[in-house]
Design a protein that fits this description.
The complex is a heterotrimer of chains A (528), B (124) and C (150).
Chain A: H1 3-30, H2 32-35, H3 41-68, E1 71-74, E2 85-88, H4 90-113, H5 116-120, H6 123-139, H7 143-162, H8 167-198, H9 203-210, H10 215-233, H11 242-245, H12 251-275, H13 281-304, H14 309-330, H15 333-364, H16 375-378, H17 380-394, H18 400-414, H19 418-444, H20 464-482, H21 485-499, H22 501-508, H23 511-514
Antiparallel strand pairs in A: 1-2
Helix pairs in contact in A: 1-3, 1-6, 3-4, 4-6, 4-12, 4-15, 4-20, 6-7, 7-8, 7-12, 8-10, 9-22, 10-12, 12-14, 12-15, 13-14, 13-19, 14-15, 14-18, 14-19, 15-17, 15-18, 15-20, 15-21, 17-19, 17-20, 18-19, 18-20
Chain B: H1 2-20, H2 25-46, H3 75-106
Helix pairs in contact in B: 1-2, 2-3
Chain C: H1 6-29, H2 37-55, H3 57-64, H4 68-88, E1 98-103, E2 106-111, H5 112-137
Helix pairs in contact in C: 1-2, 2-3, 2-5, 4-5
Classes of the chains: A mainly alpha (528), B mainly alpha (124), C mainly alpha (150).
């Protein structure tokens, strides 16, 4: 196989994680009538199959990226700074793999969790569209294209959030939609300003051009991006939309939101604050550090006063975002390494916690701690699954959360930031307390509450669908806990890539990418 | 011309944000639309205003030197704005329907109604 | 909401043909001149919206034959397939592929961007009509209930 063919094939591999769910979503939309027979089973099977294919493709992509450092494709074959590039570097391909694992797990869970009516109202195609948009947002190498993927992501999440039209959902959706309208407006304005100052939209090109601009302008744009992405990532003080919105839809939808949506914001922050805005680190990254500290404190403190498990987990979700951004704010190799590792383990745990929360409520008949109880006696296996995820979140060794928190704290110490280290430890401590609270109230406490069986609900599917994803994600947590080496090596590779944006830029402007595609009409001249 | 447009952008932003701060949610949407137009105008302005021909290169010019092309307007901001308008259009349509649904349930569009929690005890 | 105006209904019959023709013309000339699938689609949607206003949603749905949702799916599929063609010819996604054929001695270029544009055309008509139909079918009775609503 020669070099050009190889380049082409790898290019298609970069696009496949976007194209597979996108095409499947369109296919199900188009043949919805035909596929709606037999209790929508065919539709669901196609959806799960597409998620599986997505997983396979993204694993292949990650393997290729580890081998070749970076892959890219120029859509429509335009040379580099002009067309829309899709780039898979370490971070993007890792994120796509995480997306696909979570997407598959939640899709299986949703088979039982999402009721008939919602399934009928196009749950499956919108869900796949969400996956496609997530993959697109991670893989694109063009700032405006990132905006477009964000919008596709938003509109499909709007639909998923309000699907079913219950009162809580509508209120949550109003919060979520309105704040996101502001966030995307700011993102667009910042993109427009960047375009005005640099004349570029390709991320690598922007990174080159920004270095020549006066410092003040770059910092203003940086702060605009910080606010826009901070809203999506639910950073302090822009997180107030999250607690009413995330717990409102059925738990499968909450789980995929919790696992992935805020993380897209964090990903975008990492992308722009390691590639574009690296010239005034003492200012921009200090803001990030303060924000992350407050996010952690406010997140954990709000969590301990809640009674509803979904709200507790939602507030911890916010606090965990603080931990991730902390690693970015240090802007050291150790810090970024910790952030990447945190990404891997936290998304697994958060999704799993939401899925288990759904099971707790199905057994206990309520989400409220004050009403739950007896679950350890009646459902010991569920208790074990919960304990593994919850105490990993709290950072108990040797579970995966311990390694992640250890790395963050190590990075904080290395930066000589004692006060911030205390904040991190305090956050971990309160997280542990709040997890122990759920454990105590929902599992250990004896109460009048009778434990229901899953069959008592209006279930159409078997309970296998509930347990397969929970068991798989718990196994993944245990894998990261007891064999963290490969994940650690991966995060190391990714963080070193992030810290040398020069390589990214050089790769994008390599001969192969900037070559003019107009081979036939050489006489046309250079200007296009 | 640029300074005039900049002032227009500023006015659109200011009115938009003022409307977004109102307590009525419908007014929020109007504010968003105004601000969206302000942003589109911003992109248009920062893309350099060229008083020339539409950015469509006639066939006779195809073999000429690249420098001629400078006389054409910049096509990229137009593409960006078109995309942004379409996305904004979709968002506004969705939010209006969402607010309508909310209104039928809550009988109000005052932001105060969002304060108390109405989470059901169990997911339906 | 139906206006039930004879003048509008009569004018619509003539206008709708003209508008649809204009929309197709705009779509096809779009590759080299101002126009394109998006603009064409909007004009086409305008034609259907006009019909909806003068005859009502029910009649408009009947006249359209295709569900707007199906049109969106169809358009997306067409646009997607036009991008996929380049896979088999060894180019990245969405690369324009052209065939030149002579019809009665005139050079006609047919290419994948054209099919992409047709896909966009259908998506735009479908989306716009889906929204218009949905909004027309709502019965809106907004009455301000608190001070802030006014």
């Amino acid at each position: 196989m020669n070099d050009a063919t190889n380049h082409l094939l790898s290019g298609w591999l970069v696009l496949l994680p976007i194209l597979i769910p996108f095409a499947t979503s369109g296919f199900i939309f188009l043949f919805r009538k035909q596929l709606s027979g037999k209790g929508l089973q065919l539709q669901q099977q196609i959806g799960v199959f597409a998620s599986g294919a997505h997983l396979v493709v993204s694993l292949l992509l990650l393997q290729q990226v580890i081998a070749h450092d970076m892959l890219n494709v120029q859509s429509s074959n335009w040379p580099v700074p002009f067309g829309i590039s899709f780039v898979a570097d370490g971070l993007s391909s890792l994120m796509v793999v995480i997306v696909s694992v979570m997407a598959l797990a939640v899709n299986i869970y949703s088979l039982s969790d999402i009721d008939k009516l919602r399934q009928h109202f196009a749950f499956q195609p919108v869900y796949l569209l969400l996956i496609a948009a997530l993959s697109g947002a991670f893989l694109t190498g063009d700032l405006f294209n990132l905006y477009v993927w964000f919008e596709i992501l938003l509109i499909s999440s709007f639909v998923l959030l309000s699907l079913g039209n219950t009162r809580a959902q509508l209120r949550g959706a109003v919060n979520y939609v309105l704040i996101n309208l502001i966030a995307s407006s700011l993102f667009l304005a910042a993109t427009g300003l960047i375009y005005g100052y640099t004349g570029a939209l390709n991320m690598a090109d922007i990174a080159v051009q920004l270095s020549t601009l006066p410092q003040g302008i770059v910092t203003v744009i940086a702060v605009l991006f910080l606010v826009a992405f901070g809203m999506k990532a639910a950073l302090f003080p822009l997180f107030f939309w999250l607690p009413p919105a995330y717990p409102a839809p059925p738990i499968a939808i909450s789980a995929i939101f919790a696992g992935l949506l805020t993380k897209v914001g964090v990903y975008a922050l990492i992308r722009v604050f390691t590639l574009f805005f690296v010239y005034d680190v003492s200012f921009t990254h200090t803001i990030l550090l303060w924000l992350s500290g407050f996010t952690i404190i406010v997140g954990v403190l709000s969590a301990i006063v809640q009674d509803d498990i979904r709200k507790i987990v939602s507030f911890h979700l916010i606090a965990q975002v603080g931990y991730m951004v902390a690693g970015l704010a240090f802007y050291t190799d150790l810090g970024l390494r910790a952030t990447i590792f945190y990404f891997i383990e936290d998304i697994v745990i958060m999704t799993n916690l939401f899925l288990i929360t759904g099971l707790i409520a199905r057994y206990g008949g309520s989400f409220k701690l004050s009403k739950l109880g007896n679950l350890y006696r009646d459902k010991p296996y569920l208790a074990i699954f919960f304990a593994i995820s919850a105490f990993s979140l709290g950072g108990i060794p040797p579970l995966s959360g311990f390694w992640a928190k250890f790395m963050i704290i190590q990075a904080s110490f290395a930066g000589g930031n004692i006060l911030f280290t205390l904040v991190l430890l305090f956050g971990a401590f309160i997280t542990l307390y709040s997890m122990a609270r759920i454990w105590q109230h929902a599992f250990l406490k004896t109460s009048e509450n009778k434990t229901l069986s899953l069959e008592e609900g209006n279930l159409t599917q078997s309970k296998r669908n509930f347990y397969i994803p929970v068991v798989a994600l718990t196994a993944l947590t245990l894998l990261i806990s007891f064999w963290p080496q490969p994940f650690y090596t991966l995060s190391k590779q990714v963080s070193s890539q992030l810290l040398s944006p020069q390589n990214y830029i050089e790769h994008m402007f390599s001969e192969q990418n900037t070559a003019s595609p107009f081979k036939v009409k050489e006489s046309k001249g250079e200007g296009h | 011309m640029e300074s005039l447009l900049s002032i227009a952008v500023g006015i659109l932003f200011a009115t938009g944000i003022y409307m977004m701060l109102r307590r009525n949610l419908i007014k929020f949407i109007f504010g968003f639309m105004l601000m969206g137009n302000g942003i589109n105008l911003l992109i248009f302005t920062v893309g350099r205003l060229t008083r020339g021909t539409a950015p469509i290169v006639p066939e006779e010019l195809e073999y000429l030197d690249g420098s001629v092309i400078q006389d054409f307007a910049n096509p990229l901001p137009q593409a960006l704005i078109l995309t942004a308008i379409v996305i904004g259009f979709g968002f506004v349509a969705f939010s209006l329907v969402l607010l309508y649904r909310t209104y039928t349930v809550e009988k109000s569009l005052d932001t105060d109604m969002l304060q108390e929690s109405v989470l059901p005890e169990v997911t339906p | 909401m139906i206006l039930n105006s004879i003048i509008l209904q009569t004018a619509t019959r003539i206008l709708i043909a003209l508008l649809l023709l204009l929309s197709i013309w705009l779509m096809i000339r779009g590759h080299n001149l101002p126009g394109g699938g998006f603009i064409g689609g909007l004009v086409g949607a305008c034609a259907c919206a006009l019909y909806t206003i003068s005859y009502g949603v029910k009649k408009a749905r009947e006249a359209l034959r295709l569900e707007p949702r199906i049109m969106i799916g169809l358009g997306l599929t067409l646009a997607f397939l036009s991008g996929l063609i380049s896979l088999f010819l060894g180019d990245p996604f969405l690369t324009g592929q052209w065939i030149k054929i002579y019809i009665f001695g005139t050079l006609v270029k047919i290419g994948s961007p054209m099919f992409f544009d047709i896909g966009v055309y259908f998506v735009v008509i479908g989306v716009t009509l889906a929204m218009i139909f949905a909004l027309e079918e709502l019965e809106f009775d907004y009455q301000p209930s608190s001070e802030a609503d006014k």
